[in-house]
UniProtKB/TrEMBL annotation:
Gene3D superfamilies: Alkaline Phosphatase, subunit A. Belongs to the sulfatase family. Pfam families: Sulfatase. It comes from the Bacteria. It comes from Thalassovita autumnalis. This is Arylsulfatase.
Amino acid sequence: MPETQPNILLILTDQQRADTLGFLGQTPCKTPHLDRLAAEGLCFENTITPSPLCTPRWAIG
């Protein structure tokens, strides 16, 4: 049987707090599709970002 490579789906959202994801059990928000993906895959619960705040991107003209 030939080896198969894993399918990787990386979802990055902008300005979404962790307490708005249903699969973490901290919200009444309904996120059934993300819940299913999290149940079948992997969720990174502790991450680090070099830029924790969302800021506007200014056009340089």
